[in-house]
Amino acid sequence: MQAIFGLIKNNGIFTINNGVEIGSTSGAKVRSVFDGKVSKVLIIDGGGKVVIINHGTYRTVYANLESANVKEGDKVTAKQTIGTLNSSDDGLTELHFEIRFGKERQNPTDWLKKK
Question: N or C, fewer C-beta in 10 Å, the chain?
Fold first, then answer.
């Protein structure tokens, strides 16, 4: 996992990353981190499919999906597969993952279990 969260300086240009990128293989299963209800499933140009799940006052965002196995309104459980990761030519790709508390960004590296 690349812990690239928050303000990033690259070649003198500052950008903000609201989440982290988690490397995996193309087509890998993407799973919900906690029980919740799917609030949105959408497509973003250059970002593949996106699934947003509400967990009470928290919300998680999963982007760069090839497919989504859920739809708006579905209830999901922790570790339930919600989609598959986008394909790439080299067989490796990254999930963009965010955690929000209301409108406040949370650093996902503080929440994810290390293997």
Answer: C
Q: What are the two backbone dihedrals, phi and then psi, of residue 109, each rounded to the nearest 5 degrees?
A: -65, -25
Instruction: Give the strand pairing for 20-25 and 48-55.
Output: unpaired
pLDDT at position 113: 63
Measuring CA to CA, which residue among 57, 93, 60, 66 is closest to residue 79?
60
As given in the structure block, the two tokens for residue 77 are: 């459980």
Which residues are CB-neighbours of 90 under 8 A, at least 6 positions away? none
Tokens of 84: 């598959």
Average pLDDT, the chain: 85
3-state secondary structure of 109: helix
